[in-house]
Amino acid sequence: MESYLSGLFFLPLLVSLLLLILPKNLVKPLVIVAAVALSAMSVIAFSNISGAQYITAPDYTNNIVFGLDVLLLCFFGWVAIQRKSLWVGILSVVQLAGLIYLFFNLSHTQSAQLMVDELSGFMFILINVISSIIAIFSLKYIEQEDCSPFRRKYFLSIIFWFIAAMNLVVSADNLEYFFLFFELTTLASYLLISFRKDEVSEKNAVTALWMNQIGGVALLSAIFYIHLNQLGDITFTNLLSNTGQQAILLPLAFISIAALIKGAQMPFSKWLLGAMVAPTPVSALLHSSTMVKIAPFVILRLSPALKDTSLSMVIIGLTAFVFVAAALGALAQDNFKRILAHSTIALLALMIMMAALGTPTTTIAALVLILFHGISKSMLFLNAGILEKVFHMKETSDMDRLSETGPFTAMVMIIGFMSLLLPPFGAFIGKWLSIETLGSFAIESKLLGALTIVAVAFGGAILTLLYFKVIGVLINRSGETDKISFEKTGMIYRATMYMLLGIITFSIFGLPWLLTQYFSPVSEATLQQAATVTSEGWNMLIGSVSLPIVPLAIAFLMLPATLLTAMFIRFKNVDRAKEYMCGEKVNYSFGSFYFSTEVATPWFYSIGIAFFLAMLMVSLL
Amino acid sequence: MTNMYISIILIIAAPLIGGLLYGFERIVKARMQRRIGPPLLQPFYDFFKLADKRKMVVHSAHAFLGIMHFISLWFALAVLLLGGDLILVIFLHLLSSALLILSAYSTRSVFSHLGANRSAISILAYEPVLIIIAVSIFMLTGSFEAGAAFSSNQPLLYKMPLAFVALLLVLPIKLKKSPFDVAEAHQEVTGGVELEFSGIFYEAVYTAKWLDYVFCYTLIFLFAGSNLLLGFALSIFTFIYLNALDNSTARVNYKQMLRFSLGVSFSLAFINLLINSLS
Amino acid sequence: MNLSGYRKKSPWILHYNAGSCNGCDIEILACLGPKYDIERFGMINTGNPKQSDILLVTGPVTKRSRERLVEIYAQMPEPKVVIACGACASTGGVFRGMYNCEGGVDQYIPVDVYVCGCGTRPEQIIDGVVQGLAILEQKTKELEASVKLNNEAIEENHQVNRRHIAASIK
Ligand code: SF4
Fold first, then answer.
1. What's the N-to-C CA distance of chain B in angstroms?
2. Which atom from ligand 1 is nearest to the alpha carbon of C94?
3. Which pLDDT does position A606 carry in this prediction?
4. Which residues, at least 6 apart from B9, have a Cβ–Cβ distance to it below 8 Å?
């Protein structure tokens, strides 16, 4: 067990180093072998975890962690000087001062620094499997990127380093350690976003840096608060064991703020939107398996303590608001990656909301959403990369007729979009569970519950509309030719797509099994409360919510079958006629409905800030 | 058990009932305009005639999606009539409308695209209201099942009158009746999403419209609980209201529709939800 | 099953104005109103060639409109009937011999019924449509081509591609 864990921590680090040193022709095999090994190890690690497992690092690691922290912050300070960014500078200095104070004043008790439980195992699978596929994809993508051979290796190296940092984040128990790993992911994202080295990249990377550093400051504040008020060890375990006490509310609020910043909730959505300028695998990585997933993870981790507190109410309010606002933002976009980014923010809000509700059912919903969102989003972003490099398309309005020139890519993207919201895959179940549990939630806490339902209903409708808008572009074709021949995109691209398709197919057919064997134990371990998934007659009971199996299963099969058949079906003995255009024979190009949310955005941000302040206020009172 | 049989018979007969409803509606509408109007069975004559035309498509995907629109709508109706989960029903209904919209998007036809965009907007206008009504029903009956609403002894109407009003306000959007018929708008976009269908493939879309009638009137029946008489009274009222509205109003554009629906209908349903949750 | 009997019970009409003075068009619209109420016979003015059985053409076919006329005709699924409404549509009427039109719909597409009158009366139109219905009932589902501006339909893979059977004027 321990060996698998250390494998998950150290293998990516090792690969990351090796990639920098080794010659070019060894890169490919190394990445592929490492990807396979990591995925396998994560699965084995998950299946071997039973109950929380504490790992105590030797004493000197405290010093190493401190040293690394200082180095990291110094690097940020250097960035601040180089980029002349006042914000980054101030935040780095503040953190450095706080850290040094803590190092000399905090008694380093012998409590465990790392803790691995089912939730961490769940995240391991998500992080390692999905990121590995993205790493393999990047092999080809980065070849087509215009940069020096060394930078190509460097790019892959950071990806592996990112994986290592993520694996560590989800297994940290001690907040000091968590702080380091948290900042490590910040650093990795900074390096990746600024990879293209042009002006916009640098600017957006710095934005991402300072925003995430606020998260770092918030984390340090949490540590300070615990230390000064002598609330015991600065560990998650300790916080959770004090559930129900007013005193821990403020540190909880600080940690939640840090998480929500990583999760790009408004007003901090800007860093994630700015990250678009990086090479596409970076977006895939940030959006699906790493970085932003820290947010729902942390909230899930804290959910037993958060449940039914005023703090969680504010978090639910914030996420309900963000869900609608970001969905609206997504509907207003034309650029494909931007659409995906906005919808990530919206769905993250939904996940965090589910996590904050903290009932067994919503926890399962959150887990389902986290996993399926990871799979689908990585698939879609990787396809965005293919579109960019192979078809040279960036806007959705350029993409009509893709089903003629690139039917395979179009098909995969359709599957990806369907899996984001619709019943064949998990995400719909997630949305549905949320509406149904929110119903019971609303019975308990009237106004907020009702408002949240409205938000979910409304945001859900907007997102559905959005996905159908894009799917509509993807299946658009003229009746000119009826032949379909799959395009050639390259071996690696094709292979990664097949892997993701395989995972999705597995999840469709294995969903009942996954619910009982995978999601339910994780949620049980997270909440310390049984989350039952049973079947009763024709219904499947998840906690208090019952899902009718038959109609769901039919709907499960109908939608994907319909869309895929539609792509390939050809009626015999039928005429093909021209589209009706009042008899004109002009060729039109098609757009979709657009509107602008630019005027509303500052308002959205202000409301977001108000919510963040409210989080602190309610925990102070 | 008898309930079950009734539901199954209703499901199988749904296109017939819908067709008769549609035929009757055309007569009533004509009478309101002081015309005589077509025979009652006119929709079925149309049906048979359409089956007899030479088959023609824009491309197969488009026609196929149209057929699937019909099938999925029938399926949604079946789940509703069997007393299934309301959220699921609303979702399935959304799915079937979405398939029609997708079929329109799949062609390179200007009017289809316009119609599809407008239909998409109208989904945005009515879907949240329906979900809120479903949640209100949940608060009153403690279950999302339509069956619970059908069998409740006290009609839901008395507890949620505002939600009923909201439903009445969004039904014209769903059934594409004036003033909210931008999605179809024969004079502007010549039918919008259904423009490119012809012959036997149009039949699917045409009969789907009948199913939509049955679907909407079943939603009305939800409010009557187990009181069938009240259910019929409400349906007749709705029928007259819809036709009178259709005949007496002019079309508004999609922005006005969205604003009205989200401003008025949505708020009504929401106030109703609040009242239900507070009491 | 023989369904051709239903054709005359639900004739759907497409009305195309090929450059008329609007006189005949107004008369056609009058047919829809309460006085003549052609919906009694199940007729609908669809405005959409793909769902129509009867093409009512008014006007002398101007040079601007002829290509569109043929295109629309090609988009109507068989069986279909063309009714030329008014003197213009039948022969060119008052516009005959003018530089911008060629006089008569039958120069471009096969016409089944000619309705006379400069400003046809609604009764005449209804009568013409009824005669057209008799013809419609006899028609088969064979592909019908236009008189001029006609390309052969291509059959490939058991599908007839009629996208380009309406040729454009060079
Ligand atoms: S026939 Fe007479 S009324 Fe009709 S379009 Fe020609 S000129 Fe006008």
1. 34
2. 7
3. 86
4. none
A484, burial (CB in 10 Å: exposed 0-12, middle 13-18, buried 19+):
middle
In 3D, which of B33, B75, B264 has the Cα closest to residue B168?
Answer: B264
C-alpha–C-alpha distance, residues C102 and C91, integer Å = 9
- Cα separation, B212 vs B74, whole angstroms: 9
DSSP string, B61-81: HHHHHHHHHHHHHHHHHHHHH
Q: What is the pLDDT of residues A211-249, one digit of tens each?
A: 888 888 888 888 888 888 777 777 777 777 777 777 778
- Domain boundaries along the sequence of chain C: 4-147
Asked whether residue A597 carries a pLDDT value surpassing 80, the answer given is: no
- The answer, yes or no, to whether any atom of ligand 1 lies below 6 A from the CB of C94, is yes
The CA B113 to ligand 1 mean position distance, Å, reads 35
**B138 near A CB under 8 A:** yes
Please state, as a whole number, how many other Cβ atoms lie within 10 Å of the Cβ of residue C29: 12
- Chain C residues within 8 A of A572 when measuring between CB atoms: 157-159
* Radius of gyration (C-alpha) of chain C in whole angstroms: 16
Rounded CA-CA distance A237/A219 in Å is 16
Residue A387 tokens, joined: 């579109």
Helices B86-105 + B60-81 axis angle, to 10: 170
- Distance (Å, whole) CA A385 – CA A93: 38
Taking the domains of chain A in order of start, what are their residue ranges? 1-234+277-293, 307-621
Q: What SS3 state is found at A146?
A: coil
Mutate to test the pocket of ligand 1, among C62, C94, C114 (most ligand atoms within 8 A of CB): C94
Residues 467 through 486 of chain A touching chain C, CB cutoff 8 Å: 479-480, 482
Greatest Cα pair distance, chain A, in angstroms, is: 84
Residue A572: C-alpha distances to residues B47, B53, B120, C161 (Å): 22, 15, 31, 12
Whether the CB of B61 is below 8 Å from some CB of chain C: the reply is no
Mutation target among C1, C6, C80 for the B interface, most CBs of B within 10 A: C6
What's the DSSP call for residue C159? E
Please report residues of B whose CB lies closer than 8 A to that of C78. 53-54
Query: What digits encode the pLDDT tens for the residues C47-57?
Result: 888 888 888 89
Out of A572, A578, A583, name the one closest to residue C158 (CB): A572
**What CATH number has the domain spanning C4-147?**
3.40.50.12280
A575 in contact with chain C, both atoms CB, cutoff 8 A:
yes
Residue of A nearest to C164 (CA): A578
Mean predicted confidence (pLDDT) in A406-427:
74
- Chain B residues inside the 8 Å CB shell of C157: none
Question: Whole-model pTM?
Answer: 0.87
pLDDT tens digit at each of 279 positions of chain B: 567 788 888 888 888 989 999 999 989 988 888 888 888 888 888 888 888 888 888 888 888 888 889 988 998 888 888 877 887 888 888 888 888 888 888 888 888 888 888 888 888 888 888 888 888 887 777 777 777 777 777 777 777 888 888 888 888 888 888 888 877 777 777 777 888 888 888 888 889 989 999 999 988 888 887 778 888 888 899 999 988 988 888 888 888 888 888 888 888 888 888 887 776
Please answer yes or no on whether A475 and B102 come within 8 Å at the CB atom: yes
Interacting residues of A450 by C-beta distance below 8 A, sequence separation 6+:
A442, B135, B270, B273, B274, B277
Give me the amino acid identity at A474: L
Q: What is the DSSP letter of B15?
A: H
Query: What is the distance between the alpha carbons of residues A260 and A351, in angstroms, rounded to a whole number?
Result: 11
User: What is d(CA A499, CA B82) in angstroms, rounded to the nearest whole number?
Assistant: 40
ipTM of the shown complex: 0.85
Q: Which residues does chain C have within 8 Å of residue B30's beta carbon, measured at their own beta carbons?
A: 37, 39
Chains touching chain B through at least 3 C-beta pairs below 8 angstroms are: A, C
Instruction: Give, as one character, the DSSP assignment of residue A17.
Output: H
More confident residue, A79 or A445: A79
